[in-house]
Design a protein that fits this description.
Helix content: 55-70%
Strand order of the largest sheet: 1-2-3-4-5-6
Number of helices: 10
Strand content: 5-15%
Number of strands: 6
Radius of gyration: 30 Å
Order of helices and strands: HHHHHEEEEEEHHHHH
Largest sheet: 6 strands, antiparallel
Structural class: alpha+beta
Length: 391
């Protein structure tokens, strides 16, 4: 009995040692992962700075137009960064793969590794040592973090707009609102309700004089379309030149004056904020497309890893950036095809079961073809063999 127990213990111990040997990473693989992490961090900082500058310019334009208060500017900017990481991270990782492997080829490190018996399988282990934690982080951001950030950003933007609306019309002053085509004046603003009293508005959209006066009014944003209105009550509208035949005076009890149309697809914004459980439970094809997109972004990172190693293969004479332009073009094509697939799902053209998987399969097949072309993959055997170090 004791002998059998001892044999089982030794068997389990031996299995654990075997597993530890399988998952243990060599110094070369850790070196490759460390180089990738360094380059990835630098590229991510640069891409994030470019993205933040563009977003900041748009937000400052909204502030200048009086459509948003400055109090929540930095918070909204940070939330926009979280949303943008769903595309920045895969692109930064792919560039890091190409730049790091390109340097290996340029400095003949790859030739030395191949000469020492380090084949593509070991290189892929180093790539995935860096990619696996990045994959889980990107999956969390795409599935949970970005929708939450989008919801918080929309809520803060709405509050910032309310603050801007509160200061949009100053009692006793003429102020431009909207796109500058409306000049408004009000006598006073009720402190408790924010209602405007004694309103005069001059419209600059028509060639003929157009003015409106009302006893009271308030600003309102349509939650469905995002359009912003000035809701006026008990007033008159004056159109034309006084004393001419086409001069008109129209009295109204209620009048809605469009200030701006929102300028955004609110249905798409609402869907990007939906939690995962709601997307899964929904039977709407558009919600299913959004779910497939969230799953497809981290999956694309794995496909890009498989594609990077054969795509970066170059001779020392070609230089570090020889294949970078082709890599960027492939990434843009990848993202565009995912966008096309998502649009097909929303329109009901593509089956929901097919989803975006066909895009990943196409680029996975491309990676396999490149590996086979470099004689790194034996079809039918499924093992790797070293390739020549030359071009």
């Amino acid at each position: 009995m004791r002998d059998s127990i001892a044999e089982n213990v030794l068997a389990v111990f031996g299995f654990c040692l075997h597993v530890d040997e399988l998952i243990m990473f060599t110094r070369i693989e850790r070196y490759l992962a460390r180089e990738l992490a360094t380059v990835f961090g630098a590229v991510l900082v640069v891409l994030s700075a470019v993205m933040l500058s563009n977003v900041l310019a748009r937000l400052l334009l909204r502030v200048a137009e009086g459509r948003m208060a400055t109090e929540a500017l930095l918070v909204i900017l940070g939330l926009q960064l979280v949303k943008s990481l769903t595309l920045i991270v895969p692109f930064a990782a792919f560039l890091a793969f190409m730049l790091t492997l390109g340097r290996f080829y340029r400095d003949s490190e790859m030739a030395a590794l191949m000469a020492c018996g380090i084949g593509p399988l070991q290189l892929y282990r180093g790539l995935f040592l860096f990619t696996v934690p990045l994959f889980f982080g990107l999956a969390w951001i795409t599935i949970f973090g970005a929708p939450r950030a989008a919801a918080l950003s929309a809520d803060l933007s709405h509050r910032a707009e309310q603050l801007a609306q509160a200061s949009l019309v100053v009692p006793g002053q003429f102020r431009e609102i909207g796109d500058g085509n409306v000049i408004a004046y009000t006598e006073r603003v009720e402190a408790d309700s924010g209602e405007l009293r004694g309103i005069f508005i001059r419209l600059l959209t028509n060639d003929v004089p157009d003015a409106i006066s009302a006893e009271r009014g308030r600003q309102h944003r349509d939650p469905n379309t995002g359009a912003r209105y000035m809701l006026l009550e008990a007033g008159e509208r004056y159109q034309g030149v006084p004393g001419t035949l086409d001069y008109r005076i129209t009295r109204f009890d209620q009048f809605a004056l469009l200030i701006d149309d929102g300028g955004a697809d609110t249905d798409t914004l609402r869907r990007s904020q939906m939690p995962l459980g709601q997307l899964i439970a929904s039977g709407d094809p558009k919600d299913s497309a959004e779910l497939q997109w969230r799953i497809g972004v981290p999956v694309s990172l794995v496909v890009l890893v498989l594609l990077a190693l054969p795509l970066a293969h170059a001779s020392p004479r070609e230089g570090r950036y020889a294949r970078l332009a082709a890599a960027i073009a492939l990434f843009v094509l990848y993202v565009n095809l995912m966008g096309i697939g998502k649009a097909w799902m929303e329109q009901g053209t593509a089956p929901l079961l097919l989803g975006l998987w066909w895009v990943h399969l196409v680029f996975g097949a491309l990676a396999t073809a490149l590996l086979y072309r470099l004689r790194w993959l034996k079809i039918g055997v499924g093992v790797f063999e070293p390739a020549d170090s030359g071009g």
